[in-house]
C-alpha cells in the first residue's frame, strides 16, 4: 500500500462497503465497549468485559486463544490505570500517541500466558478507538511491515507509527470520511480500509445484538 498517495475519499469508499456488511456488528460491539467503562474505572472485571473480549475474538476469527484468556485479560484490564478522559473522543493526535498505544497493548500482552497481540490490540481498540490501532497479520501485511519482525513488540510499534501518521494526514479533512457508524474515529476508519485490502472476510453474525440483550444492556447511553 502506498501510504503517501492514499486519499480520504478512498478510505471513505472502503468504510462504506465495510459498514454495509458489518455495520450492525460494530454497533453491538460499541454498545458492549461503552458498558465496560464503569467496570474498568472501578477496577472490576465483571461479565461485560469478558463478553467484549470473547465477542471480539469470536467475531473476527482470532485463532488459538484459550478460553481462560478472557478472564485473565479482563482481570489484567481491571488492574490497568484508567481515567474518564481516556474514553473521550479526541480530534487531536498527541505527541505521545504512539508510545501510549504501544505501552498499553504491550503491557496487556505481558499479563497473558501467550503473546496475544491481535486480541489485545483489538480489545483495546474497541475500548479506546481514538487511541489504540488494531494489529494482526492482515494489517501488518497491508502496511508493508516485515513478515518476520525481530519481535511482535517492535512490529506493533511500527504499526502504530504508520497508522497515526495516516490519521494525521487526514486531520484537516471533512470528518465524513470516517463514515456514519460509531465509533467514528480515524483509527477505526483506517482499520476498515485495511480490511478492504486484506482479501478476507469475517463471517457476518446474523443476530449481533443477541450478545447485548443476553446481558440486559441498554444501548441508549
Task: Describe the structure in your own words.
There is one protein chain. This protein is an all-alpha fold and 221 residues long. The chain is built from 9 helices and no strands. The longest helix is centred in the N-terminal third of the chain and has 34 residues, at 8-41.
What is the radius of gyration? 16 Å
For the termini, the CA-CA separation is: 38 Å
Number of domains: 1
Percentage of β-strand residues: under 5%
Average pLDDT number: 93
Based on CA inertia axes, which overall geometry fits?
Answer: globular
**Helix content percent band:** 55-70%
Query: Biggest sheet: strands, sense, closure?
Result: none
Q: Give the low-confidence spans.
A: none
| SSE succession | HHHHHHHHH
Number of strands: 0
SS content category: mainly alpha
Give a summary of the structure in a few sentences:
The protein has 221 residues and is an all-alpha fold. The chain contains nine helices and no strands. It is globular, with a radius of gyration of 16 Å.
Show the helix and strand layout.
Blueprint: H1 8-41, H2 47-59, H3 69-79, H4 97-110, H5 117-127, H6 137-142, H7 152-169, H8 186-198, H9 210-214
Task: Describe the structure using short key phrases.
single chain; 221 residues; mainly alpha; 57% helix
Amino acid at each position: 500500500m502506498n501510504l503517501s498517495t492514499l486519499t480520504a475519499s478512498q478510505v471513505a469508499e472502503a468504510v462504506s462497503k465495510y459498514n454495509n456488511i458489518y455495520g450492525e456488528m460494530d454497533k453491538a460491539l460499541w454498545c458492549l465497549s461503552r458498558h465496560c467503562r464503569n467496570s474498568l474505572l472501578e477496577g472490576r472485571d465483571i461479565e461485560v468485559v469478558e463478553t467484549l473480549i470473547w465477542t471480539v475474538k469470536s467475531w473476527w476469527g482470532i485463532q488459538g486463544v484459550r478460553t481462560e484468556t478472557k478472564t485473565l485479560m479482563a482481570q489484567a484490564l481491571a488492574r490497568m490505570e484508567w481515567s474518564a478522559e481516556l474514553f473521550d473522543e479526541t480530534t487531536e493526535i498527541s505527541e505521545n500517541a504512539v508510545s501510549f498505544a504501544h505501552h498499553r497493548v504491550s503491557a496487556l500482552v505481558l499479563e497473558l500466558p501467550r503473546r496475544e497481540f491481535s486480541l489485545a490490540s483489538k480489545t483495546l481498540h474497541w475500548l479506546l478507538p481514538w487511541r489504540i490501532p488494531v494489529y494482526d497479520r492482515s494489517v501488518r501485511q497491508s502496511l508493508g511491515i516485515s513478515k518476520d519482525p525481530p519481535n511482535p513488540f517492535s512490529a506493533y510499534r511500527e504499526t502504530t507509527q504508520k497508522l497515526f501518521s495516516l490519521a494525521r494526514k487526514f486531520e484537516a479533512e471533512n470528518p465524513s470520511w470516517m463514515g456514519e457508524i460509531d465509533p467514528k474515529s480515524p483509527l477505526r476508519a483506517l482499520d476498515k480500509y485495511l480490511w478492504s485490502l486484506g482479501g478476507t472476510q469475517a463471517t457476518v453474525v446474523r443476530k449481533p445484538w443477541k450478545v447485548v440483550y443476553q446481558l440486559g444492556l441498554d444501548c441508549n447511553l
